[in-house]
Write a structure and sequence with these properties.
The complex is a heterodimer of chains A (about 100) and B (about 475). Chain A is about 30% helix and about 5% strand. With about 100 residues, chain A is mainly α. In chain A, strands 1-2 form a two-stranded antiparallel ribbon. The longest helix of chain A has 15 residues. By secondary structure, chain B is an alpha/beta fold. Chain B has a domain of about 290 residues: Amidase signature (AS) domain (Amidase signature (AS) enzymes, Alpha-Beta Complex). In chain B, the strands form two sheets. An eight-stranded mixed sheet of chain B has the order 4-6-5-10-11-9-7-8, with helices on both faces. A three-stranded mixed sheet of chain B has the order 1-3-2, sandwiched between helices. The N and C termini of chain B lie close together (about 5 Å). Classes of the chains: A mainly alpha (about 100), B alpha/beta (about 475). Chains A and B meet through helix 1 and helix 2 of A and helix 10, helix 11, helix 12, helix 13 and helix 14 of B.
Chain lengths: ~100, ~475
Amino acid sequence: MSLTNTQIETIAGLARLQLSPDEIPSYAESLSRILGMVSQLEQADTSKVEPMAHPLTGQVQRLREDSVTSGNAREAYQRNAPQVEAGLYLVPRVIE
Amino acid sequence: MARTLAELAAGLAARKYSAAELARDTLARVERMQPRLNALISVTGEAAMQAATVADRRLAAGEAGPLTGIPMIHKDIFCTEGVLTTCGSRMLSNFVSPYDATVVTKLKHAGMVMIGKANMDEFAMGSSNETSFYGPVKNPWDVTRVPGGSSGGSAAAVAARLAPLATATDTGGSIRQPAALCGVTGLKPTYGRVSRYGMIAFASSLDQAGVIAVSAEDAALALQAMAGFDPRDSTSVDVPVPDYRAALDAPLAGMKIGILKEFFGEGLSSAVEKLVREALAELTKLGAVVKEVSLPSLPLSVPTYYVVAPAECSSNLARFDGVRYGHRCENPKDLRDLYTRSRAEGFGAEVKRRIMTGTYVLSAGYYDAYYLQAQKVRALINEDFARAFSEVDLLLGPTTPTAAFGLGDKTSDPITMYLNDIYTIGANLAGLPALSIPCGFAGHLPVGVQLIGPHFGEAKLLGAAHRYQQATDWHLKTPAGFPEGFA
């Protein structure tokens, strides 16, 4: 399994990570080796196996009522925001 | 001198010292030893003194529990209201949590006194604590070596007797591996036993909160306060919490311990193997019966993990976009630039590697071959464990292949680093509880033995570990140049 520099650029794009040109070959090398290691999984006969969906057999994820359970804490949350105005999160202009 | 949390609690109850004195002493220790170890990211002195004052009032009023007034450290992956919560990352280096994790709330209610936040591998991705944005933690047994990871700060802090207890998390071995490398006791509970609410997510189907302590008894006291159903965590399991302290004294006679054949093959250092076999002999002397068991799919744990964990990490870490909290790049030219540069600057190399690995294995055309196949192999590993636990009570093996390695020794090769977790990952994939306890020394470095239990078998695990620790004193050994106890 060997990934090309172009594939790494595509993956980084999907993951929204900007890579510098000199980082790309080293990620191509290490990801290729990781996928090589992972390819051992092909050895396992899983033709009659159901994929595991939860670490505890028989457990399913609970659902709750779709109702408000806590008060509005917008101000507290926005204290961590890089840029806010009038209670809104600011980002660069997306619509001209 | 109090050597354990339980002995400290007895000293507090007997008024030998106050919680405020303990907190002051702990803060002084932290100040003295932090430059040598880099075990903490934040120190919360003022809040600690306030909590200690409240604890002293509870002690005076006769309203104290076994943890009231005991100093402790939270791994910096747990959200702590009003306190910097970084997860070891530049991405969250400015994040002051607006709320407490459930684990934090529960230990606060128990009266524990938080002294600070422990250093860790960035987003818990690492086995040496070298991926932290705040620099590596040093192993107190040899400061040229790693403490293990990702809970390296928690393990080093307890090993150096900064505090008797630290919280930790374990996704592929991040409690047990550093506990082994630092010569302390580390417990990873069953998946869903302890709430993950407010614990910054890495791989949601594997992550579990636990503790690092001096002894199994101390770990039992902490688990008692931490465990239990939490409606705010949709994977929290509604199973009653037993009395862990009471279960410690159950006799070992007749307990069936399975020795894991797959854990004693190539790659295991002979020094570690010898000590693990001696620990097994000690347990046999205490009445346990040994049986060899084989888990044929277990050798596929590492490849399974390195599909499942990165896949879940790539999804979980998508939330860090530089918009609502966390690092934002300077002068973004458009929204895409804001995302890609904020993430490039905010995440370190190993986190990026795992995000990209996960993105690839989940991408169109590769999902079936990687992710689906890994989830099927995970089911096989789970079945192997279930079969083993129909024959034995607990499984035993080494925690790590070797004792602590040198700082920088494995940073250039991710796969060599990943293989440190070869013996710990299985329990995460199957959601099982497991612990590591000290079982001797390879030269000057501590070595751990691992016990794995069936789902919700924490009491059995802690009981066996406690019996072993009553018969041996490896867990009470402390590194030269550090205190031998607490107060």
